[in-house]
Specification:
The chain is of the alpha+beta class. A hairpin with a 4-residue loop joins strand 27 and strand 28. The relative contact order is 0.11.
Length: 733
């Protein structure tokens, strides 16, 4: 286990002091562009990240993006290493301090989300590496009294081919300091044809530490005199403590204290299991509040009724209402998607040390700046007095980007007044029953076909609980009262902050929306956000339209995407790679779905085998993705595999039931995840592209559910419109 000193965070001021030139190291300040140019790669640079080079030739990058299995700790260093000509094994990574210099140029906060880390960092970090290289070359040129253009760089060294001299980057620091060499404003970046790191498969930078156990996740943090806390929360969302009796808990050896906090009663002990035992011994009287009668079935009923009513108009191309009303060939359907839990392998946890005028937190978080803000607000401290030490994360899927910083705030509340570190660990049952959820949604679908069987009109009404309404993100994501996050993936044209549409062209296209009333169940982003429901409804209903019109489902998508070259080319390649036109034996069938998320088009064909008893296997998934230039093809393949696995788990088993204000499911026995023997063979094809890199972290989760549902229909003739599949007798084996 690492010592406390090695995992304690460092303030920006402290970092700069520790790595200044006077200390024998070199710090480079860099510039990150604004959002539009970060993706496009054509913007000026602004301060946001730092490179440190030490005399021992170690290169340390301060990472302003979180690592939770997304590969940020690999793809981002690759960008710097390429332009810096750095030896890969010399690069070390540190989480950046929570300071505006490190905020995302897209979000304006310290936030890792939306599959934008690679795209937003590509040009800035390449520029950072090139600036650093130019300074080192200039230092060597002055040392050897030669023209800088005559020098080469390789493996963290500057080389003079003519004179035979060679100097490590660390050896040149003194010259940079003495000569006052500064970063050049303009640097020439490498031609992609000369890349030796970028575009080549690179294994995970932090992988060895995860194998040998040296990696520090939030749950691994150990600090002197640390106490552990377990919290009893009301089983009904929004419920409050009326009174509690901790007498039995205090009899348990190792229990130190029991006290009330805003969200329940916390028991503090010398270890977690003792704390949990003490919590279980509490006697609490709860005021269950107004949510004790809530149920999923009640929401479905309410949402179905809302779907029958006119909603807020998000898109109205042509005149879908009139066209459908007079059409002879119509298709109608209602799709329903349940609540989903994140169910991360590492449950929620946070360690906090609260002093009179400061607070230090150790936590796996995607949303570092928000956590600091919420803690500062709770303790009435200036934000500068709150230090967030970001750890690695054992999964998140959006859960660790909590807007209310729930698990961080709880730890700080528990630690307040204790003067020692307190670690709060959520059990898996606590997280599944008391966490945040992908909202429940109902989609009413109506369509019309022309005489040729092609989609002529589309009318979709989306009903669900808003994720963004009445949050600090409301101004950006609520447009004319509509939560556009809930509509991402079903709009034909760009809308709000989303610069892309479905990639399909249907002449009459109408989307309406109802933000269901806010209830006690807390909605939250789940990997790929809206596409986890809009993608299913849209892609499955498109298949229904294809079937009604006598069209091949993939051919239909090719026809509808002819005005979108990237999607059209992707689907064309998918047809080839999936063997779409080759017949399959009886009981086996294919299904297709395509999506655009965070600019990146992606499409999948799923092959399934179905038995007479409803048991089925997903045998093969062929995925084609266009994410611009592929920074790390090996990382892209891993992200696709992981996204497909998560999406398959959700569509097969994923279901959170609310009954009498309580969540029914509690752990992996009743909220299962895929087992390795259920995993299909996955083939990943990355489109060759000269476009700047775009997202890939969430993309693969979006098409797999409708692709499998469509394949099951093709095999059985049974159309599933409410999920998960298991509730309809389809059991994945």
């Amino acid at each position: 286990m690492k010592s406390a000193d090695t995992i304690t965070g460092v303030s920006r001021r402290g970092f700069i002091k520790a790595t200044s030139l006077s200390a024998g190291s070199l710090m480079f300040g860099l510039y990150l562009p604004a959002r539009a140019s970060a993706v496009a790669g054509d913007a000026p640079v602004q301060i946001n990240t730092f490179i440190r080079i030490d005399p021992d030739n170690t290169i340390t990058l301060l990472m302003n993006h979180s690592e939770f299995g997304n590969g940020a700790y690999t793809s981002l260093p690759m960008m710097v290493a390429e332009e810096l000509d750095a030896a890969w094994d010399s690069i070390k990574l540190e989480p950046a301090p929570t300071s505006p210099e490190f905020y995302s140029p897209i979000f304006g906060e310290y936030l890792t989300a939306g599959s934008v880390s690679t795209g937003s960092s590509y040009m800035p970090l390449r520029t950072a590496g090139a600036q650093a290289r130019a300074m080192l070359v200039e230092a060597a040129a002055r040392l050897w009294q030669v023209d800088a253009d005559s020098l080469e760089t390789r493996d963290s060294h500057v080389i003079n081919p003519a004179g035979g001299q060679r100097a490590s980057y660390g050896e040149l620091l003194a010259i940079i300091s003495r000569e006052g060499i500064t970063p050049p404003e303009d640097v020439k970046l490498k031609d992609p044809a000369d890349f030796i790191i970028l575009g080549k498969g690179r294994r995970r930078h932090e992988g060895p530490s995860k194998v040998d156990g040296s990696a520090i996740f939030g749950i691994d943090v150990k600090l002197p005199d640390m106490l552990y806390g377990s919290i009893a929360r009301c089983p009904v969302f929004g419920g409050k403590v009326v009174s509690f009796d901790a007498s039995e808990a205090m009899k348990i050896a190792g229990v130190v204290k029991a006290k009330q906090i805003s969200n329940g009663v916390v028991v503090l002990a010398k270890d977690y299991w003792t704390a949990k035992k003490g919590r279980d011994a509490l006697k609490i009287t709860w005021d269950e509040g107004p949510n004790a009668k809530l149920s999923s079935e009640g929401f479905y009923k309410e949402y179905r009724e809302l779907a029958e009513q006119p909603g807020m108009l998000a898109e109205d191309i042509g005149d879908s209402v009139a066209v459908i009303a007079r059409a002879e060939r119509k298709v109608h359907a209602v799709y329903e998607m349940p609540y989903l839990a994140h169910a991360t392998m590492e449950p929620m946890n946070c360690t906090a040390l609260v002093k009179k005028d400061s607070c230090e937190v150790w936590v796996g978080t995607q949303y570092q700046s928000n956590d600091r803000t919420m803690v500062a607000r709770l303790l009435d401290l200036p934000e500068e007095s709150v230090v967030i030490n970001r750890t690695l994360m054992g999964g998140t899927f959006g859960r660790r980007a909590s807007k209310n910083a729930d698990y961080t705030v709880e730890a700080v509340e528990a630690a307040r007044g204790e003067d020692v570190p307190v670690q709060i660990i959520w059990s898996r049952e606590e997280d599944i029953r008391g966490g945040l959820y992908r909202p429940l949604f109902v989609h009413k679908m109506r369509g019309a076909l022309d005489d040729e069987g092609m989609p002529l009109a589309w009318h979709q009404t989306v009903v669900g609980q808003s994720i963004m309404q009445n949050t600090k993100h409301d101004p950006a994501y609520m447009v004319d009262g509509m939560d556009i996050y809930s509509l991402d993936g079903c709009l034909q044209e760009p809308f709000g902050v989303f610069p892309y549409g479905t990639s399909y062209t249907i002449p009459n296209h109408r989307i309406e929306s109802h933000n269901a009333p806010k209830v006690g169940v807390l909605p939250h982003e789940w990997r790929a956000v809206a596409h986890t429901h809009t993608g299913i409804a849209y892609e499955c209903f498109l298949d229904e339209m294809a079937h009604a019109g006598g069209k091949d489902p993939l051919e239909l998508r090719l026809a509808l995407s002819k005005d979108n070259p990237r999607m059209h080319a992707l689907l064309t390649l998918l047809r080839e790679k999936s063997d779409w036109d080759k017949p399959l034996p009886a009981g086996r069938a294919r299904g297709v779905a395509a999506r655009v998320y965070s600019i990146s088009p992606i499409a999948q064909v799923a092959e399934v085998t179905v038995g007479d008893n409803g048991e089925f296997s997903v045998d093969r998934v062929v995925c084609v993705v266009d994410c611009g230039f592929a920074v790390n093809p090996l990382g892209i393949e891993a992200q696709v595999q992981g996204g497909i696995s998560l999406g398959l788990s959700a569509v097969h088993d994923g279901n959170i039931d609310l009954v009498n204000g309580r969540i029914v499911q509690s752990n992996f026995h009743d909220y299962p995840v895929m087992r390795i023997d259920q995993m299909p063979r996955i083939e990943v094809h990355i489109m060759d592209s000269d476009e700047p890199p775009t997202g890939v972290g969430e993309q693969a989760t979006t098409p797999i559910a409708p692709a499998v549902a469509n394949a099951l229909f093709s095999a059985t003739g049974k159309r599933v419109r409410s999920f998960p599949l298991l509730k309809h007798g389809f059991k994945m084996v």
